[in-house]
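Quick start: read one record
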Amino acid sequence: MFSKRVLTAIIGIPAAIYIIQYGQWLFFATIALLAVASWHEFCTMLRVKKTKLAYYPGIFGILLLLGCAWLGNPDETMGVLFITILLLLSKMVIDHKNFSVQEAVYSIFGIGYIGLAFSYLILLRSLQLTQLCPTLWGALPAGIVYLWLPFIGTWANDTAAFLVGSRWGKQKLCPAISPGKTVEGALGGLVGSVAALAGIGSLLFGIPVLHAVLIGCLVGVAAPVGDLTESAFKRFCGVKDSGSLLPGHGGVLDRFDSIMFTAPLVYYYIQLFLI
């Protein structure tokens, strides 16, 4: 298991660096593939509960949401989401024998949860494309720097939470959802996020220290919430992993559950205080 995780990281991290740096159509296509894979995993998990979601309309709706983020128009995003909800509710009324209220509600939730969350990765990468941030590797477009913040903070959170929880963890955080998580681990993860972003964000990326610390606090709180949210889905469906696309890591949702919560918060913080 550990060797598979390492191999996936060896391949995935350089690929992520290149794709984020290159941006443009390659970045959009990658995010779209990850979002569609997440939707597939979400539908597959709920199928275990005999709940069949609107699979293809869901893919279409998610891609439209991502496209709106790519174009940078929030009004279009809300319009697409509203129309998607109306269409699914109409399908529920017209085809009520084959598409129940429960299936409609889960479909709407999944499309919004996945489509909107991944949209914020595109929005972060698109911020201030013409502005350059001084970094240790020279000037980089601001969007690249901003996009790395939730990833670095989340990875540091996961690592620190695991190390601290394994060594000193005693008090359970949410035993009904994730018995392995502890309060001590969560606090260690928070410290890890703050330390990583205060160090890397300020020293390497040129983010003001105070802002880097505050972003670290946001990420440190939101990351475990995202993790526990997906754990609740999996426990509800009775599955261990959301999928098996990433060897040693499970599915896409297993790897991006925390990012789906931290990216929107980082985006709005930057919009409010750094731009």
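The CA atoms of residues 173 and 183 lie 5 Å apart.
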